[in-house]
Amino acid sequence: MEVNIDLWVWDLDARQDVDLSVLSSGEQQRARRFVQPLHQNRYAVGRATLRHILSQYTGKPASGLAFDYGPNGKPALAGDVFFNLSHSENQAALAVTRGCDLGLDIQHYRPVETDLAERFFSLREREELEALGPTRFADGFFRCWTRKEAVLKARGEGLSVELDSFDVTLTPDTPPQLLRYTPDPACVDSLSLHHLDFAPDLVGAIAVFSHARPVTVTRR
Questions:
Q1: Which keywords label this protein (predicted)?
Q2: Cys staple from 106: which of 80, 163, 204, 213, with CB 3.0 to 4.6 Å?
Q3: Considering the domain 3-103, what is its CATH architecture?
Q4: E strands within 12-147?
């Protein structure tokens, strides 16, 4: 049976018409803790939009959705609707599916120091990144980063797992793949990776527990 993932993308600064009244009291309090009004608005718009979209899948009012949180803070809903939210600067993305957990990460390209790869990537990933050369360093780096983040988010582990304890592919124009996952080797066979291109300076990845089933990602 195929895994169907809906991908929603929106501009956090452009959605001024979103109904913020659906936010919980906890979400309203968290929004107020941001010092900058820009960041307050982005958080509020992101969470409200998340609620409005998920209400379409659950059939429940947006304001009535109750989130459970895993040990590392990953939000979830009771039932068979699985989702993951990511944002980078003004862009937000939400992946939604049924019956299997998933993780999503998006990143804007930005200047990065090469020592970041030395600190966080595995030996295999560093060698693959070096082979790309300086002109494709950013492409490889952010492919690697988003894929690793998506894997950790799918598993609900966050930064409790060392980033160099597993390998992903990162060369452009080659299939994204999880090659090694030392904390749980069986994860390699159950989890699939999918690259996302949004704009010349914005990329992302989805990791989903598809268990070798075909996966279709549809932009909504």
A1: Transferase
A2: 204
A3: Alpha-Beta Complex (3.90)
A4: 68-69, 75-76, 81-88, 91-98, 102-108
